[in-house]
Amino acid sequence: MSSDATETDPIDAPAAAGQTRWRTIGRWAFIFVALAGYAALHLHFGSLLMQQTNFTDKNILGGDQKNNIKLALQTREDLNPDFSKGVSGPIKNWFPHRTDGVVNPLWPWIAAWMADPDQTISANDAVTPQDRALFERGRRFNVGLTLGFIVVLGIACARIFSVAASLNVVLLAGLGAFLPRAVFFQPEPLYFTFFLLTWVACIFALQRNSLWVYALIGILSGIAYMAKGSVQPLVGVFIIVSTLRWLWGWIVAHWPRGIPNLLWVRRNHLFGLFLLVGCHLMTIGPRLNYSQERFGDGFHSYPGYWMWFDDFESCYAWMGTHNTRAQLEAMSPLDKPSLRNYAASHTGTQMWERLRDGMLVKSADLFWPAVTKQSKSNPKPWKGILEWRGLYLGILAAMGLILAIAMRFAVPRPERAWHKLHPESAAICLFVFGSLAAYTLAYGWYTPIGRGDRFMLSLYGPLVLSAVWGAESLLHRARRRAAPQWMIRSYHAAQWLLLALILSRVAEILAHPVFKN
Fold it and tell me: What φ, ψ does residue 382 adopt, rounded to 5°?
């Protein structure tokens, strides 16, 4: 992959040498019209999903949505600091920090601004009119947030990718991942946004490891953590891959006839990791302080314990008897849920079967969700927007693979350094596949406790963007090496055909706009 601008053929091209100003204006006019069309589609589908799915009291009481409402109302008092008792305390408490050990503080903090001043916390098994009003405001906020982010993402992609590729990123990320989760009163839209930004920052750092990029990763991953703690494996994979890249660079530099590397600076890495960790901890500092005071552990998370149970009922019962700092600190190592204790009470076969079955379930959730078997005579409600999202991602991956093979056999050999793929490309591929493997393993193990596609769905947008980024970067190298026009035109035709395939799915929904709750 490369962050360099991707030049394209005259049929579908970013501004490049020799293009007229009017052609550039026409290209951007088309992009903005297309993004406006997507915005209308996003709002329309969002309205349909809010009306037809996740709207009953039973829905609100499930999936931690009522718990998010409760925590938002508890957070509301922090938004009006009382300086009569001091200055530092109210200022510290104003920042997002409250957690119940399950829900992280960012989404409840944002939702607290939407609550009515006189709204009170209702019973755990009740949904009041004020609860429902806050629930609807939160969903509308999430739909607007995801729309704004996807439009900005589309503009950013259009600056370096071809038109069809940029629109495919918008449609697949927006309709395939962000919008389906936006109609819930949950932190996923915030988490998906900052997870993807962290992913992009990690790729930039693997390309050119400037110190400020490490700091940016720390800040973005910290904000993602404040929404949901699941960002930690991503940061862990980046640290491992970047350190392997540093080690490889050290070996090459000390090898006879070492290959010079102008993009990745080894001496930046160790201090960069220090910046990353420091910025991450500073960003999540308010949450760490609150969790330390309440639970006796700054990184306390009940889901971290739940991983070592076999069903959610056992998790919930255990949490009920360990919901104070004193109860948590009173646990002995033999009583604390952990891998060691789980392995002591389960056979290796049982553990392998849990992991294997869970990985299959989570992989299906991401790549092959439920597909509606539609009947023309008796139309059924759709189970999702992009029910074939795995197929679309597979097509994008196939484009990059075929282009790489074609470059090997149909493109002149590289004559200069800038014609070649840099070593950073291998590190980026390792990061992408390593992240996918890490989350498949982690969420696969967690499957008996938490089901549903919201876990793995956070990966869909980053994987789509990475596939397009990789293919467009290969195309850029191919053009530099005087690739034949049939190869370039075939690639662009494939992107336009994929766009047409996605739009045909959109047309199906517009013709029968009914979703299953």
Answer: -70, 145
pLDDT band of 370, cuts 50, 70, 90: confident
Q: What is the pLDDT of residues 187-222, one digit of tens each?
A: 999 999 999 999 999 999 999 889 999 999 999 999
Three-class secondary structure assignment of 247-271: HHHHHHHCCCCCCCCCCCCHHHHHH
Q: Is 210 exposed, middle or buried (0-12, 13-18, 19+ CB in 10 A)?
A: middle
Q: Please say whether the beta carbons of 305 and 318 come within 8 A.
A: yes
Cα separation, 400 vs 226, whole angstroms: 35
Buried b (16+ CB within 10 A) or exposed e, 298-322: eebbbbebbbbbeeeeebeebbeeb
Q: Are 301 and 101 in contact (CB under 8 A)?
A: yes
pLDDT in tens, 402-448: 998 888 887 776 655 444 556 678 899 999 999 999 999 999 999 99
Read off the DSSP letter of residue 8. Answer: -
Tokens of 460: 């869909």
- Which of left, alpha, beta for 184 (phi over 0: left; psi -120 to 50: alpha)? beta
Q: Is 53 left (phi over 0), alpha (psi -120 to 50) or beta?
A: beta
Q: How many residues does the chain have?
A: 517
DSSP code, position 12: S
